[in-house]
Write a structure and sequence with these properties.
The complex is a heterodimer.
Chain A: H1 2-24, E1 44-51, H2 55-68, E2 72-79, H3 81-89, E3 96-98, H4 102-110, E4 119-124, E5 126-130, E6 151-154, H5 159-171, E7 179-181, H6 184-192, E8 198-202, H7 203-209, E9 214-216, E10 226-232, H8 239-250, H9 252-260
Parallel strand pairs in A: 1-2, 1-3, 6-7, 6-8
Antiparallel strand pairs in A: 3-10, 4-10, 5-8, 5-9
Helix pairs in contact in A: 3-4
Chain B: H1 5-27, H2 34-38, H3 41-74, H4 80-87, H5 89-92, H6 95-106, H7 113-118, H8 127-153, H9 156-163, H10 168-197, H11 200-205, H12 216-226, H13 228-263
Helix pairs in contact in B: 3-8, 3-10, 3-12, 6-8, 8-10, 9-10, 10-13, 12-13
Classes of the chains: A alpha/beta, B mainly alpha.
InterPro entries (chain A): ModA (IPR005950), ModA/WtpA (IPR050682)
Organism (chain A): Cryobacterium adonitolivorans
Keywords (chain A): Metal-binding, Molybdenum, Signal
Amino acid sequence: MTVTRASRVLVAATVFGIALALTGCAPATPAATAPTGSAATLEGDITVYAAASLQATFTDLAETFEADNPGTTVALNFAGSSALVTQIIEGAPADVFASADTTNMTRLTDAALTDGTPVDFATNVLTIAVPPGNPAGITDFADLAGPDVRLVVCAPEVPCGRAAKTVAATAGVTLTPVSEESSVTDVLGKVTSREADAGLVYVTDVAAAGDAVEGIEFTESASAVNTYPIAPVTGSASADVARAFVDFVTGSDGAAVLRAAGFGAP
Amino acid sequence: MTLPRWVIAMAAIGAAFVLLPLVAMVLRVNWAEFVPLISSESSVAALLLSLRTSLAATVLCVIFGVPMALVLARTDFWGQKVLRSLVLLPLVLPPVVGGIALLYTFGRRGLLGQTFELLGIEIAFSTTAVVIAQTFVALPFLVLSLEGALRTVGSRYEAVGATLGASPTTVLRRITLPLVLPAMLSGAVLSFARALGEFGATLTFAGSLQGTTRTLPLEIYLQRETDPDTAVALSLVLVIVAVIIVSLAHRTGEPSRRRARALS
C-alpha cells in the first residue's frame, strides 16, 4: 500500500519533471514536438497582451493552445505595443506580453516586469501598400517621393514610423507624406479606403488585408527589420500556463502559424 | 430646501469620481520641464491648429446650427421628432463611426468627394477635413442648447411683433435672436469646447500631419507613445483651456435664465 503510493508519487513527479523540462527549453529545442502535450498538469487562466499586428496569428494560436490544454483559457488584448507596456507598468493584469519591437519590451524589462529573458519569435519588414489597380503607378520605393503621390506613413514616434524613417534614409529618398498616422492599421485604412495612393505598412498587414490592397516589395526594406519578442510577465497567478504559452508561440507550432501569415524567422 | 445627508454624500462621491482623475494627472506633471515640453515646435503647432480649427468649426456651427434650432423650435411638421433625434445623433455616435461616415461622404471615393475633386477642392488630409469633423461632432451642442432656450422664451413677443407689421426677418433679428443671445453664446462656447476635444473622427477622417491636421488631442495621443511627460503636460494645457471655456459658458449661460424668468 505505502509502496504503491510512493511509486505513484514518483511517477507523478517524473511526469511533472519531464513536462517542466519540455516546456522549459522549448525555444532552444525544436524537438519539443508536443510542448503543451502534458495537458493534465496545466490549469489556469492567462491574459496575453500582444501587439496589434499579431491579432490574427495570436487569436489562432490561443485557440490551438486552449484545445491542447483543456484546463486553460487564454484571454487576448491587442493594442499598440507602447500602449500595452504603459498599461502593464501601471498594473494591468497581463500574464504574457508580446511586443512588435524590442524597444517596448526593453521598457518592460527595465521595469523588472518580465519573468526571464524575452525570446525573439518573429520578424517583420515594411512593404508598400497601394489600392487595387495601383492608381498612382508605384513600382519602387523612389516613386513614393513623386509630387502627385499621396503617401501615408506612420509617425516617427511609433515602431512602423521609425522603420519607415530608417528605410527612407537608406534609400536616400526624402518622403513628403500627407499624413503621419499613430498606428500601422490607420495607414492601411487610408490605403484600403483609397484616400491615399500608397502607404508604408508591414508585409503581414498586406497579407492579412487580402484583396483590399496590393503589396509592392522593395529591397531597401531589409535595412529596417522589426523583431518581435515575447516574455511572461512577473507576478502571474498562472505562471506555468504563461510560460507554456510563451514556449508554444516560440516553438514549432507558433512558427508555422506566424510564417504562414508572412512573419519572418527571428 | 434641506437635502438629505445621503444625497450630499452621493454627490461628493460623484464629484470625486470626476475630479480625482484630473488630480492624478496633475500629480504626474513634470513641472521642472513643463514649459519646455509645451513650447516645443510640435506642441505649439498642435495648439495653434486646434484653436484655429475649433474657431472655424464654431463659426460653421452658428451659421448652420441657429437656423436648425429655429426650425426645430418654431415650426411643426411631420417627422420633426425623428429629424431632431437624427440631427442630435453625433452626440451619442462614437466619434470613430462619425469619422467613417464622413470618409464615405467627403472622401475621394465618397458621396460628395468626387464632386469636390472636380471643383478642385481637396478635402482629404487637409485642414478643411479637420474643421468638417469638428463641426460634425460640435453642431448638436449648439442646436440643443439654443432650441431649449427658444422653447423656454416662447413665441408671444414674436407674435406681437408680427401683428404690428414686422416682417419675419425683422422679428427674427429684433426679437427672437436678442432674446436667446446668451443661450446662443453659451451653445457656441460648448461647441468650441467639443471641437477642441475632437479626436476619433479627425483621426479616422483627416489623418495626422504636424501643422495641417494634427490637432492637440492627436498630438497627445502620438506623444504618449514615446514621451509620456509631453503627453501629460499637453493634456493639462487642454484641461486648462477646457476649464476656462466651461466657466465662460456658465457665465454667459446664466443671464439667459434670469432674463427668461424676468420675461415670463
